[in-house]
């Protein structure tokens, strides 16, 4: 492959914290500009590819082609997959990789964030108070991750709470209950103000609106169709991969508050609707790309 063709296909893989690099768009405004994205590792690309697939399982050739979108060499992809398998993040069988049990829970939370189960709010709150003593740093870190996954916010050290409007379909992890005592109650303070103190609602909404604008911009780029031979990515495909991962991460951080506690014009539902439309079209294009690439390999 010539250096010119490789450069045209090169894209930066990005995350939510930090700056991205040039994606080789070749003129025109970058749809991801201003989102504050930074490069990711080969592991992150593989993980995002599997998390975005249902079921979360892909053949190694497809994962290699996804890596090619970002000019990640095949050898680097294979090393990343081997290390992830050794760490128990993924499992391998007959040339196919899929998420391991530990990351399947993350995939489930990601799916729930796209279609959250909300129940009517009666004004009640759920609260957890840490009562265990002598905890190791690893236990404290695990508790923080567990509370965040349940979408509770920390009021003060060891006190976590949120409105009781989520339909809890799964029991809490036993190790989480072992460290805490749980309560149901209602705050004396204004719940709207309390919600604003617990979550940066304005910041989340601003980010959501920026992501929606980027989704609309990339949807128009994608409609332009293929750009080059079958082994080259269609226009916007690499950036679509990056943006899809960024939207899913942002939805995971949505506190999913009752409507009564949200600011006016909350963009959560709007972002989800726009993303579902984008994702349906994008996933079809990505499948076409990986299959066409594999056929010409």
C-alpha Rg, in Å? Answer: 21 Å
State the order of secondary-structure elements, H for helix, E for strand.
HEEHEHHEEHEHEEHEHHHH
Query: Whole-number average pLDDT?
Result: 84
Number of domains: 2
Concise structural overview:
The protein has 297 residues and is an alpha+beta fold. The protein has helices spanning 3-9, 42-51, 60-69, 74-86, 101-114, 137-149, 174-177, 191-198, 201-222, 237-252, 268-295, and strands at 14-15, 38-39, 57-59, 90-93, 96-99, 125-130, 153-156, 159-163, 180-185.
Question: What does this protein structure show overall?
Answer:
By secondary structure, the protein is an alpha+beta fold. The protein folds into 2 domains: 3-101 and 201-295, no CATH class; 125-185. It is built from 11 helices and 9 strands. The protein has helices at 3-9, 42-51, 60-69, 74-86, 101-114, 137-149, 174-177, 191-198, 201-222, 237-252, 268-295; strands at residues 14-15, 38-39, 57-59, 90-93, 96-99, 125-130, 153-156, 159-163, 180-185. The strands form 3 sheets. Strands 7-8-6-9 form a 4-stranded antiparallel beta sheet, with helices on one face. Strands 3-5-4 form a 3-stranded antiparallel beta sheet. It has a two-stranded antiparallel sheet with strand order 1-2. Strand 7 (153-156) and strand 8 form a beta hairpin. The two termini are 13 Å apart.
């Amino acid at each position: 492959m010539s250096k010119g063709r490789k450069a045209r296909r090169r894209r930066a893989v990005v995350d939510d914290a930090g700056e991205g690099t040039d994606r080789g768009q070749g003129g025109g405004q970058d749809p991801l500009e201003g989102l504050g994205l930074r490069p990711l590792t080969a592991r992150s690309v593989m993980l995002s590819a599997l998390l975005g697939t249902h079921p979360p399982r892909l053949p190694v050739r497809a994962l290699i082609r996804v890596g090619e979108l970002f000019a990640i060499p095949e050898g680097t992809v294979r090393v990343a997959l081997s290390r992830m398998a050794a760490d128990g993040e993924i499992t391998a069988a007959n040339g196919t990789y899929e998420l391991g049990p530990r990351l399947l829970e993350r995939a489930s939370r990601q799916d729930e964030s796209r279609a959250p189960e909300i129940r009517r709010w009666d004004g009640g709150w759920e609260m957890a108070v840490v009562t265990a003593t002598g905890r190791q740093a690893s236990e404290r870190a695990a508790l923080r991750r567990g509370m965040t996954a349940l979408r509770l916010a920390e009021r003060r050290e060891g006190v976590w709470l949120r409105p009781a409007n989520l339909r809890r379909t799964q029991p809490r992890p036993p190790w989480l209950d072992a460290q805490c005592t749980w309560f149901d109650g209602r705050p004396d303070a204004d719940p709207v103000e309390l919600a604003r103190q617990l979550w940066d609602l304005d910041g989340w909404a601003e980010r959501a609106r920026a992501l929606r604008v980027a989704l609309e911009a990339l949807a128009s780029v994608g409609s332009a169709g293929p750009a080059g031979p079958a082994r080259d990515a269609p226009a916007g495909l690499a950036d679509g991969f990056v943006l899809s991962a960024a939207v899913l991460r942002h939805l995971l951080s949505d506190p999913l508050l009752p409507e009564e506690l949200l600011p006016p014009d909350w963009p959560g539902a709007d972002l989800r609707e726009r993303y579902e439309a984008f994702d349906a079209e994008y996933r079809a294009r990505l499948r076409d790309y990986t299959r066409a690439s594999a056929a010409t390999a």
